[in-house]
Structure formats: C-alpha cells, structure tokens
Sequence to fold (252 residues):
Amino acid sequence: MVIITVINNKGGVSKTVTSINIASYLSRDSKVLLVDLDAQANATISTIGETSNDHVGQWLVEEKKFAEVVKQYDTSFDVMPSARALDNYSKLIGTEPDYQFILKERIESEKLQQEYDYIVIDNAPSLSTLAYTTFLAATHVVIPSAPEEHSISGIANILQTVVNVKKRYNPDLKVAGIFFSKYHPSYRERIDNDMVNDAREAFGELVLQTSIRKNVSIKEALAYKKSVFDYAPESAGAQDYQKLVEEIKTKI
Fold:
C-alpha cells in the first residue's frame, strides 16, 4: 500500500484540491482512501459534505472503529472525514507519549493495507501534531507550492522534517515530488518564473515537471463536490492533474 501525505505549511497552495484529485484519479483502477486531517474539513466538505458526528479524531483515539467513521464517496473512493472538533483531539493526542506513531498504528491495527491500494492524506497548512504523524505513517510526501517566496521557503522545513523522520523513525519515507499550482511556464509574470527557477536550482529533481495552471473548472468542481475529472474531464485542470498524478506514479 502507498500512503501519500500532501503537505505545505503555507495555505493557499491547493493542498485540498490536489489531495482530492490525486485520490480521484488513482481510484479509477485502485481502491483509495482520502484522510482529512485538517480541522477546517475542506476535503470533507468538498467530497461527502460536512459531517459533525463521526470524524477522524474519534478514530485516532479509538473512540470509534474505522467502519463507524469512514464514508463512501465513490465506488473505489472512501473518505475519512474531519470536523472542527479535530482541533481538540489534536491537542489531546499531542500530550500522549509517542503520539507521533498514532496514525501509523491505527492504519496497521485496522489492517487498512488489506483494504486499500492508496491512502491520500490532506493536512492543515502547518507542521502540526497531526501533520507530523503522517510522516511516520506515509511512504511518500507530495509538496504543492505556489510560485511565491513564503510558500517556497516552507519547502525547506518540510524537507528537513523528512530527513529527520527518515533518520529516526521511517527510513523508507520518500519525497514523491514538489510541484507548483496556479502556474504555467507560459505565464508572463516574470517573478513567478524566477521563483520556480530558483526552486529548481535549490531542490533539483525533487521539483516535478508538471505544474497546475489556473483553471476555473478546478474551483467549480470543488463547489459541486466533484473531482475535476468528473466535473470537467476535458478541461485544462483535468489534463494537468492527470499529468501530475502520472508523473508522481513514476516516483513511487
């Protein structure tokens, strides 16, 4: 089983839309679970709708079993929903000894590797307690970024976290790639191109060739609780995300 954590400690870089569309594309020929670890619950709202009674925090602390919380979104695409209450659960989890193993242990104890081919995790825009648990559970890290200084500067912190986790806890953890959202090399904004070129110099082959263009279909798809592949399969957004996932698959 491949476990992909989608993370950047800067907001507005398309983490949620990326998580949903990676999961959707992979679910075409695989069984996929999307885990929403952001208390804002945007991935939950943009797929199965808002839920308050059952959420991932309850599953993590073993208040509820996996089957009691997980929701089906599509035939081969399930969602582990989030809720605002997850913030309180996160604080509780952070006080526990060896809290960083909690997600890994819950995945293994529920034998999810027998149920799913892929798990895709959407995170809050910070290196929070719950986000850190994903580094120990994951096999691969995907880092979306905007072509902006603050977004790019956060990448180094994530890569250093990967190094630390690999050394101490999860030697098999790999970076599947860094990519840029709301960007295309043909755009005329020179500063954007300069930022991307600087990132390629700094992070080398970790920066993927695929980028995601600005495309209204991506935003509209979220509003209608659909992936861009289902909402507008011929759109530039669908084309870009298909290329992105295919490139990521070559790294895993």
Summary: The chain is about 45% helix and 15% strand.
